[in-house]
Amino acid sequence: MLLRSMFAENYRSLRSIRMDLTGVNLFIGENGVGKSNLYRALQLVQAAVRGSLAHEIAKEGGMSSALWSGRRRADKPARIRLETELMDEERAITFRYRIEAGLRPPCAAAGFAFEPQVKEEELSVETGRRPVTMMKRSGPGIFVRGERGRMEDYPEQALQSETAIALLGDAGHYPEIGTFRRAVDQWRFFHGFRTDRDSPLRLPCLAVTAPMLDEDGTNMAAVFATLRHTRQDTVDLDRAIADAFGGAYLDVPDPGQFAEFSLVFPDFPQRPFSTRELSDGQMRFLALAAALLSYRRPPFIALNEPETSLHPDMLPALADMIASAARDSQVWIVTHSERLAEAIRERCGVRARRVIRKDSATWIDGMRLTGLIDDDDA
Questions:
Q1: How far is CA 228 from CA 205, 250, 285, 348, in A?
Q2: 273-280, long-range: CB within 8 Å, 24+ apart, which pairs?
Q3: What is any Pfam family matched here (predicted)?
Q4: Does the pLDDT value for residue 107 go beyond 70?
């Protein structure tokens, strides 16, 4: 399903921003303008679907750190509000999900002081007529559309830090909720990969078929083994590695208990280089290759500053991989690199959206309040 739009309000530097999205979404901007907060807002939607929203916000320092840091109206509650709209193009069904989370009331006994308190949630679907509410939550009470098509009280109340979308999805009785959850759960966010000596990228992994790369890259060797020995099609992967490393190729032996790989360079054809011997930039490029060229492409792939540690000569090959992934996946790229942005534009036909600060908040240069960007400014 295609992510058609997103909205975020009162989250870190995002005072209130709505964006329409396309197949390839490319963002560029200076440090400190809030590019990563746009990316992180979508991660929080996924966390809500997975039932880990409270945990994710706690890792950021709690609600006091996650809330909009600028001035807020005294007559409005301090709440983070996130919305997404997904379109199932094959069945012409639109899913809209909204969640609002705020602080614990001062006198409330339930919940911990710094964790998010979910105030409201709603999931609706639209099939060409007016939207139909499938689930609505206010405080701990949940209403859900049952088998007879009527809104009913759900027998179990949610904890203040729980999300109804996860609670109902786990119940297994609500197909529309399950469809939406599965779609969002498959999104992949690659914020960066560890490349130190003990990085999971450098270690053999259990030989288990791996159609997609884990977000920390733990199963990278298994992803390559799956492409080589299960799919038996590594044309795009071989081309990307040859282009990035001056004609090198990936050696992926038939795995036993563990999957592993090495890199063979033209200057040393008899001397495979193990993952322990490769540079940080080489390992990072290989991880990006596994993320973008896996056996099964995630429906949505987000890359945050993928050019980090890469030699500039690797950027055209990275742009080629992004264009290849965009044939099957919706792609979101945040970058500092003008060179990478230009290479993506040439291959994908999209121009970068420039992220700026406007009245102390994160904004997109040339964007209207509705989320649209004029063609001349896109």
A1: 16, 10, 18, 27
A2: 275/201, 275/202, 275/203, 276/197, 276/202, 278/202, 280/195, 280/309
A3: AAA_21
A4: no
Residue type, 203: L
In the three-class reduction of DSSP (H, G, I as helix; E, B as strand; rest coil), residue 179 is classed as helix
What is the third-level CATH fold of 189-348? Rossmann fold (3.40.50)
- Tens digit of each residue's pLDDT (9 = 90 or more) over 33-91: 999 999 999 999 999 999 999 999 999 899 989 999 787 776 677 899 999 999 998 88
Amino acid (1-letter code) at residue 372 = L
The DSSP annotation for 244-280 comes to: HTTT-EEE-PPPSSEE--EEE-TT-TT-PEEGGGS-H
Strand partners, 93: 88
Copy the structure tokens of residue 236.
């795009």
The CA-atom distances, in angstroms, between 268 and each of 122, 247, 251, 253 are: 59, 11, 13, 18
Burial status of residue 198 (CB atoms within 10 A of its CB: 0-12, 13-18, 19 or more): exposed
User: Length of the chain in residues, anyone?
Assistant: 378
Cβ contacts of 263 within 8 Å, gap of 6 or more: 241, 245, 248, 249, 250, 251, 272, 273, 278, 282, 286
